[in-house]
Amino acid sequence: MSDYIEFSGVCKAFDDQVVLDDVTFGVETGTTFAILGPSGVGKSVLLNHAVGFLAPDAGEVRVAGRNLRGMTDRELAEIRKKVQLVFQSGALFDSLTVSENVAFPLMDTGLGEDTVEARVAEKLRLVEVEHLADKMPSELSTGMKRAVAIARALAAEPDAILYDEPTTMVDPLLSATINNLIKKMQLQLGLTQMVVTHDIANCAEKVADRVALLHRGRFVFNGTIEELYRSDDPVVREFVDDDSYRVERGEPRVEASGP
Ligand SMILES: Nc1ncnc2c1ncn2[C@@H]1O[C@H](COP(=O)(O)OP(=O)(O)OP(=O)(O)O)[C@@H](O)[C@H]1O
Ligand SMILES: [Mg+2]
Fold first, then answer.
1. Which of 16, 130, 176, 207 has the fewest CB atoms within 10 Å around its CB?
2. 142-155 and 113-126 are packed helices; what angle lies between their axes, rounded to 10 degrees?
C-alpha cells in the first residue's frame, strides 16, 4: 500500500522558535495515524501543513503523491476537499441548524437541492445523529457538536479526515462515542486519517493503527501502540507514564518515594 499523506524533512519555525525540525512520516492509505505530544508542541501546526494552510520552511508535504509546494489556490482548495480538517473546536456555524451546517460545504457545488438533502441525511446517519438534524448548535453537547463536525467533513466525500484533539473537553463516555465514529470512518468508508492528541488512553489507543510522539520538533517515536507502551526510550517513558495520563486511564497515581 502507498502512503496517502507524506511529510519528508519538514521544518517550520516562527521567528526563531523552531516548531517542526525535520519531520518525516507517511500515513498509509486507509489507516489511522495518531500524533501524540503535550500542549504547545506543534501538533496543530503539523496538521495545518497537511492541507497547505501552512507551508514548510524546508522539506515537502505530499498528498496522494502530489507536492503541495507551488500549488495554486484552486489546487489547494481541491486538496482541502479531499483532505478534511476537523478543528479542535468543531467550529460549527451558530446561526445554522445541524442540517444547514452539514450542507454548507455543498453550496456552490452545482448539486441539486434533492441531492444535497439526501447527502446531508446520509452523513448525519453515518455519524448517528440524524435525530439532531433540526437542532441549533447551541442545543448540542460538545460531543454532539464534534459528531456534526465530522458529518460536515464527510459532506465533501473526502479521502482523508484529520482530527485536531477530537476528545479534548469531552467526558470518557462521549470520548468513546467519538472514538467509535473515527474508527468507523476508517473501517466502513476506507478513509485515511490523522488524529493529533495529547490523550493516549482515551484517544490514540482506541483509534490508531500507528502512533508517533512529537517532542521538541521531532518524532522521537513512530510505531504501534504496543511498541509505544513497551518502549524504553526515556522521552517516550516520560510521556507515557505521566501522572495525569495515568489518572485518565483510571490507574492510581504513583506516590513519590524517598525522603
Ligand atoms: N501562526 C503562528 N505564528 C506564530 N507562532 C505560532 C503560530 N501557530 C503556532 N505557533 C506556535 O507554535 C507552537 C506550537 O503550536 P501548536 O498550536 O501547533 O501546538 P499544539 O501541540 O497544537 O498545542 P495544543 O495541544 O495546546 O493544541 C506554539 O508555541 C505556538 O505559539
Ligand atoms: Mg493544537
1. 16
2. 130
Residue 60 is placed in which grid cell? Answer: 515537502
Distance between CA atoms of 102 and 19, rounded to whole angstroms? Answer: 33
The residue whose CB lies within 8 Å of the most ligand 1 atoms, and thus the one to mutate among 43, 86, 194, is 43
E strand or H helix at 212: strand 210-215
Please choose from 12, 21, 44, 218 the residue to mutate so as to test ligand 1's pocket, defined by most ligand atoms within 8 A of CB.
44
Ligand 1 centre distance from Cα of residue 153 (Å):
23
Number of domains into which the chain is organized: 1
Q: What is the pLDDT of residue 88?
A: 75
Is residue 31 one of the residues assigned to a domain? yes
What's the pLDDT band for 111 if we cut at 50, 70, 90?
A: confident
113 found inside a domain: no
Q: Relative to the alpha carbon of 37, which ligand is closest?
A: 1
Is the pLDDT at 81 greater than 50, yes or no? yes
3 state SS of 109: coil
**201 assigned to some structural domain:** yes
Domain residues for the domain of 64 are 3-91+160-248
Given a cut of 80, is residue 252 above it in pLDDT?
Answer: no
Give residue ranges with CB within 6 A of ligand 1. 14, 19, 37, 39-45, 198
Q: At 171, which CATH number?
A: 3.40.50.300
**Residue 215 belongs to a domain:** yes
